[in-house]
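for the recovery benchmark. tokens below, seq after
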């Protein structure tokens, strides 16, 4: 596409027009916890500028080229109370702030997030439920792809490649998503299927993950019916930094001899590394990773490598340009479903040898200009290219090439007690495939949101977004989606929140035009598909019981119209159709706390979902009714021990017609998964190291994660990390 390169060049040269000024002032400091231990990864930002830093492993930070004047320094880290510190910087001054102490707290209300309103705010000030995953948690869990970490988030269930937040999604293989996937605030979905590819962003690049629950279409448009996942990538640090990790794992053999298909041990191994630094006004970051997984099932081996880079240019203390890119290539075999329950780890004979090759890359740019202490302009562009080829449908197989360009101009300002956020977006996608032909689509949108604080206790949010979308050969359409919300601080420890919004999801090119045969399933196109629509309501209460304990509870209700699901026709063919009106409602409770002077930190969450077809009154397919997660951390000295338990209720309903093709398709049980991890940090020759050992599915509990698909067996993994 010609427009992605020309738009990028336009922004680049626009930056050149601004004057460049030099500043010799800098500030530095050292951040520790109450025990005097250095805190790594603390975020420090200078309000009213684009300047900021993160602490290194020794807890030190340094921010250079600060203009003279008075500023507010904002300091925050998940798991600790936030701080704001006024600083006065004089011309030529090198300011040392000394030691800054952060107080540990299990309460997430002090965490700073950007996804809910497209600007920084405390999580307790947003009107919808949100969960966070920080960099430390990602690394300690030995995460290879992001979906492995999302499986521990309250209210989230992973169905194969589909992400289900509070019952919003069932399962449709390889098409569509009711959860919008963002990288640094801009959508990164494939142009053809509009699905999430969890492997497209290497985990070593991730600084934190923000998961917004409930409809987000009033700010983010299509695909945000069930929620939004925003990946915040690692900043380029002032001092030289690096991080490297190597891991190796082994799968247990199945307990039943009839399930054993290989005489050899099956392994999982990989390596990743990245690093960079700033040099004057410029910064760079380079990284790469390699992973090879034999798989615990026959015909399920996968091999993947990726390379990434990121550049920054601080045009001035008030202007910054970021450019990032990643290239990923993956070869994997294709296990779709089992031969039968007696051969649960083997596919049918005609699927042996099925494989898929995928190549993906993205190029992203962001320009940010702080126009004043309370207003800023942000321009974002992201080009995502995806190609896959398989040998599944006969000799020629399936193949597709797609592109997606997302662009946005956002302006935020504060007038008195009101914060305004406005913006325009353009999304262009195209696909060329023997499965669904050659097609393209486009989406234009404008949005506006206002947050008003009449008193210190009240925050009132109102917003609206209009979307116009057009798919070639089909009629164009538009949607207007409003939202409203409020938060009220009942006391200094208790906050009530409530929100209401409308959402929609336009059907993907794949859902409209797919025509293929794969593994016994024949899929036919449906050019009459209409967009899905929903209305979402939530009310919640967050209460800090004490310094060490907090409780969050919420009730949610979602009404869906024209829900798109893959349906078996009388002919036996599969077609995506607008099938039903549906209601998804439920409750969620999250309790976090610290015990025994911080020796133990624990988090409990329970989510109940009632998801029903309003016409037939049947439970919606592929939605677990109950989710219960219990995560624990123990700190005996320098050693960290983690013990996690997940309970996922078996699906009330699947599509019964799967039994025509998949033997024993109705076999399913509740899932009880226990994981244990041990981490030990030390230094060798001044190099910080950490050794981790993990046993996933400790008790080798057998359950299915999809129809005819046995979930992962017990796995032993050892990893070593080094970083500055």
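predicted aa per position
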């Amino acid at each position: 596409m010609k427009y992605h390169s020309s738009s990028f060049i336009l922004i680049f040269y626009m930056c050149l027009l601004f004057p460049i000024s030099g500043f010799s002032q800098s500030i530095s400091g050292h951040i520790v916890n109450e025990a005097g231990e250095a805190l790594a990864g603390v975020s420090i930002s200078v309000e009213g500028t684009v300047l900021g830093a993160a602490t290194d492993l020794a807890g030190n930070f340094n921010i250079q080229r600060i203009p003279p004047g008075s500023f507010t320094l904002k300091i925050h880290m998940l798991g600790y109370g936030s701080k704001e510190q006024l600083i006065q910087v004089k011309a030529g001054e090198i300011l040392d702030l000394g030691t800054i102490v952060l107080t540990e707290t299990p309460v997430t209300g002090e965490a700073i997030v950007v996804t809910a309103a497209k600007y920084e705010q405390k999580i307790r000030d947003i009107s919808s439920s949100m969960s966070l995953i920080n960099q430390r948690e990602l690394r300690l869990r030995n995460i290879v792809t992001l979906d492995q970490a999302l499986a521990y988030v309250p209210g989230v269930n992973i169905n194969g490649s589909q992400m289900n937040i509070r019952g919003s999604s069932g399962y449709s293989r390889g098409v569509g998503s009711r959860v919008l996937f963002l990288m640094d605030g801009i959508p990164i979905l494939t142009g053809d299927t509009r699905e999430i590819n969890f492997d497209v962003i290497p985990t070593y690049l991730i600084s934190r993950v923000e998961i917004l629950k409930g409809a987000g279409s009033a700010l983010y448009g299509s695909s945000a019916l069930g929620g939004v996942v925003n990946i915040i990538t690692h900043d380029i640090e002032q001092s030289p930094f690096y991080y490297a990790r190597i891991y190796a794992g082994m799968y247990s053999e199945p307990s039943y001899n009839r399930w054993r298909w290989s005489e050899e041990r099956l392994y999982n191994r990989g390596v990743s590394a990245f690093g960079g630094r700033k040099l004057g006004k410029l910064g760079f970051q380079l990284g790469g990773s390699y992973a090879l997984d034999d798989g615990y099932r026959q015909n399920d081996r996968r091999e993947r490598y990726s390379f990434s880079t990121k550049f920054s240019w601080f045009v001035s203390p008030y202007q910054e340009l970021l450019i990032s890119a990643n290239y990923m290539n993956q070869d994997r075999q294709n296990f779709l479903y089992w031969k039968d329950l007696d051969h649960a780890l083997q596919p049918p004979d005609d699927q042996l040898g099925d494989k898929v090759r995928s190549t993906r890359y993205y190029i992203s740019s962001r320009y940010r200009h702080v126009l004043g202490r309370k207003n800023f302009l942000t321009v974002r562009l992201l080009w995502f290219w995806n190609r896959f080829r398989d040998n599944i449908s006969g000799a020629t197989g399936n193949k597709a090439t797609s592109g997606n360009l997302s662009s946005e101009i956002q302006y935020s300002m504060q007038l008195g007690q009101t914060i305004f956020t406005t913006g325009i977006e353009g999304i262009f996608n195209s696909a060329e495939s023997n499965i669904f032909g050659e097609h393209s689509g486009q989406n234009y949108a404008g949005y506006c949101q206002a947050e008003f604080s009449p008193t210190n206790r009240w925050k009132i949010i109102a917003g609206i977004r209009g979307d116009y979308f057009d798919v070639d050969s089909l009629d164009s359409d538009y949607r207007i989606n409003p939202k409203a919300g409020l938060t009220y601080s009942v006391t200094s420890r208790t906050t009530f929140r409530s929100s209401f919004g409308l959402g929609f999801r336009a059907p993907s090119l794949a859902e409209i035009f797919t025509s293929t045969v794969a593994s016994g399933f024949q899929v036919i196109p449906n050019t009459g598909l209409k967009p899905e629509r929903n209305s979402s309501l939530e009310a919640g209460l967050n209460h800090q019981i004490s310094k060490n304990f907090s409780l969050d509870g919420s009730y949610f209700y979602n009404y869906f119209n024209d829900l798109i699901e893959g349906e078996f026709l009388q002919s036996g063919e599969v077609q995506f159709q607008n099938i039903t009106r549906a209601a998804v409602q439920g409750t969620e409770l999250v309790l976090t706390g610290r015990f025994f002077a911080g020796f133990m930190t624990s988090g409990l969450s329970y989510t109940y979902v009632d998801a029903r077809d309003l016409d037939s009154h049947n439970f919606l397919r592929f939605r677990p009714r109950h989710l219960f997660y219990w995560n624990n951390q123990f700190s005996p000295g320098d050693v960290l021990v983690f013990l996690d338990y997940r309970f996922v209720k078996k699906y009330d309903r699947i599509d019964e017609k799967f039994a025509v093709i998949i033997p024993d398709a109705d076999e399913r049980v509740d899932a009880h998964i226990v994981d244990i991890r041990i981490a030990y940090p030390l230094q060798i020759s001044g190099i910080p190291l950490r050794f981790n050992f993990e046993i996933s599915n400790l008790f080798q509990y057998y359950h299915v994660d999809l129809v005819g698909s046995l979930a992962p067996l017990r796995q032993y993994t050892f990893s070593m990390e080094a970083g500055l």
